[in-house]
UniProtKB/TrEMBL annotation:
PANTHER family reported for this sequence: PLATELET-ACTIVATING FACTOR ACETYLHYDROLASE (PTHR10272)
Keyword Hydrolase: yes
UniProt-listed InterPro entries: AB_hydrolase_fold, TAT_signal
Name of this chain's protein: Alpha/beta hydrolase family protein
Keywords: Hydrolase, Lipid degradation, Lipid metabolism, Signal
Pfam families: PAF-AH_p_II
GO biological process, one term: lipid catabolic process
Signal sequence range: 1-29
Record-linked PROSITE patterns: TAT
């Protein structure tokens, strides 16, 4: 199950349950899951993007020499891995990229948020995305720059757990930069083969002992925001030779990634619009807990924001979202996907139902993570509303009028007044 970063879930009492060893919540008094016996491992597929462009991808290692790593004192510089998704051409000559590299796949198998899925039964490295490695960028219209989006995943998750949505956006003409937050995500593999795994399980255990959980939550979000801003600093090198529209930069993410996207927009005027996919905006361990607000919630935003929550989460029920609504002067839209849960806004929506069928797992493994919403409809909703928001706010076009109110095509979506 995907982390309820800065919130809690049905089988978690705390934020960093996302990083729990062997899919168990940190601090939970439950027996550790035992790796499954040797068997043929399940292979998974992802939904193909629906936009007019094929998708290309390249990965980059970034080094920030001015920032020592905040999680590992012996590292004098902060290192990140990012993937750039973009509209491409002539993709037939280029292989489809793996969702996870071998080291990342092994790390994800050991430490992921899919509660109830036994270790060693899924071939995580076998999943192929629909992004073609190294394919040339599609030609843009003369004088036209492409809009850019930053994507941040939930705590404990790799940048690739949002592949369905990031590839969809790239297929619709966006350049999407997916950011791995080193020592936060389950495992990050660098070009030299080095794999860095999450330090957050031990950080959380220490914070619980010392009574410093709020401070850890603040640090986790601050590191992510600094990562996103550093990626913006390196934008030209990352997307060369694609022309950019620097007035059309957005950010989005799931859970802690959604929090980081909105906080980064608050802190950095370069970001013009943001989408928060079920991320609480306070330093608390439960969605409805009152507690220390982030500055984005306390100050509000003067630029457009979309919040899409799981069923039951909206700006009337989540205190930090209520604060954001009260203090913001910019356009804001609050949508609920009925029947959804926290991990609905990740690739878990496509993966977990297939895993459960293939391994004969209880239905609860699926519903605890993604709720009772039909998975195909959940994917369709995200592919409709997130691009529609960025199209309206960054491209200044609203062809479908989808954001004006409820649609008969998407009855699962509730507009929250």
């Amino acid at each position: 199950m995907t982390t309820r970063t800065f919130d809690s879930g049905p089988r978690r009492r705390a934020l960093l349950a996302a990083t729990a060893l062997a899919t168990l919540g940190v601090g939970m008094a439950q027996p550790k899951a035992v790796a499954a016996p040797a068997a043929r491992r399940v292979r998974l597929t992802l939904p193909a993007p629906t936009g007019p462009y094929p998708v290309g991808t390249v990965s980059h290692r970034l080094v920030d020499p001015g920032r020592p790593d905040p999680w590992v004192a012996s590292r004098p510089s902060r290192e990140l891995m990012v993937s750039v998704r973009y509209p491409a051409r002539d993709v037939e000559r280029y292989p489809r990229a793996a969702q996870l590299l071998p080291g990342e796949a092994a790390g994800f198998d050991r430490l992921n948020n899919f509660g109830g899925v036994p270790q060693g039964r899924i071939d995580w490295a076998a999943t192929r995305t629909f992004a073609h490695q190294g394919a040339p960028p599609a030609r843009a219209r003369r004088g036209a720059g492409r809009p850019v989006l930053l994507y941040s995943p939930g705590v404990g998750d790799p940048r690739s757990l949002g592949t369905t949505l990031t590839d969809e956006l790239a297929s619709r003409g966006y350049v999407v930069i997916c950011v791995d937050h080193t020592y936060d995500g389950s495992a990050v593999e660098f070009p030299d083969g080095r794999v860095e795994t999450s330090r957050l399980p031990e950080e959380y255990e220490r914070a619980k002992r010392e009574g410093t959980v709020v401070e850890l939550l603040r640090k986790t979000c601050a590191v992510r925001v600094a990562d996103l801003r550093f990626v913006l600093d390196r934008l030209d090198a990352l997307v060369a030779p694609m022309p950019l529209d620097r007035s059309a930069i957005g950010a989005f993410g799931q859970s802690a990634g959604g929090f980081a996207a909105l906080q980064a927009m608050h802190d950095d005027r370069r970001i013009a619009a943001a989408v928060n996919l079920d991320g609480v905006l306070a330093y608390v361990e439960g969605d409805q807990d009152p507690g220390p607000l982030s500055t984005v919630a306390a100050d509000g935003l003067d630029r457009p924001v979309l919040t899409m929550g799981k069923d039951g989460n909206d700006h009337h029920t989540v205190p930090s979202w209520a604060a954001l609504w009260e203090h913001s002067s910019g356009p804001r839209l609050d949508l609920t996907l009925l029947g959804s849960d926290h991990a609905t806004y990740t690739d878990a929506t496509s993966m977990l139902p297939r895993i459960a069928v293939r391994l004969g797992l209880p239905e609860k493994v699926v519903t605890d993570a993604i709720g009772t919403v039909d998975p195909e409809r959940a994917v369709a909703v995200q592919r409709a509303y997130v691009p529609a928001f960025f199209d309206r706010e960054l491209r200044h076009r609203d062809d479908a009028g989808l954001l004006d109110g409820p649609s008969a095509r998407y009855p699962e979506v509730r507009f929250v007044d």
